[in-house]
Amino acid sequence: MATDDGPVGEVLDLFARQGGAHYGEVVDQRCHALQCATRASDAGAGDSLVAAALLHDIGHLLAGPDSGGAVDPAVDDHHEASGARWVAPRFGATVAGAIALHVLAKRYRCTVDPAYRARLSLTSTATLSAQGGLLGEVEQARFVAHPGFAEAMALRLWDEQAKVVDAVTPGIGEFVPILARLVVARPGVAILTTG
């Protein structure tokens, strides 16, 4: 249930309606998002990166309810792209940029660190091929040179670590002030502030 009609309310509504979906992982999307955002916050990340950690898989929630079946590892749902497109006009390009790159960061990390690849969850391992697989040398160099490389790599680390059953995290309400600070003013929409 949304607390308002703005972007923060939209996020809360999506998590209320779709956050219980698992998408093949051992934890549901709400728990995964909260664990990821908590790890970012604990690492001292700024608001934009904490918000990206919270919203990095929002593309899954936008796709609709989990069918209850297994994720088809042969199909790439491009959730990073759909999520980034949804986030950008609501919370800005910086938040959207890290979201857009988090799957590429997975592919890069798997390419350069076989031990990391061996530690991936079963679903992450299964979807790697559909998402493009390992990167070639030119793709690696291009990604390393990208201005969002460091943020994407940090987000990817927290993403993989955020799949702990029964992990204790703050509720989504703890992250609402961060989201509220990042809301992008839209033409014709009044942003109310206090103080």
Topology of this protein?
Elements: H1 7-18, H2 29-42, H3 47-55, H4 58-62, H5 79-91, H6 93-112, H7 114-119, H8 122-128, H9 137-145, H10 149-161, H11 176-182
Helix pairs in contact: 2-3, 2-10, 3-6, 3-11, 5-6, 6-10
Give structural notes.
The chain is an all-alpha fold. The protein has a single domain, classed as Hypothetical protein af1432, CATH 1.10.3210.10. Helices cover 59% and strands 0% of the residues. It is built from 11 helices and no strands. It starts with 6 loop residues before the first helix and ends in a 13-residue tail after the last helix.
The overall pLDDT, averaged over residues, is 88
- Total number of domains: 1
Q: Runs with pLDDT <50, length 5+?
A: 187-195
The end-to-end span amounts to: 27 Å
The total of helices stands at 11
Summarize the structure.
This protein has helices at residues 7-18, 29-42, 47-55, 58-62, 79-91, 93-112, 114-119, 122-128, 137-145, 149-161, 176-182.
Main features:
mainly alpha; single chain; Hypothetical protein af1432; 195 residues; 0% strand
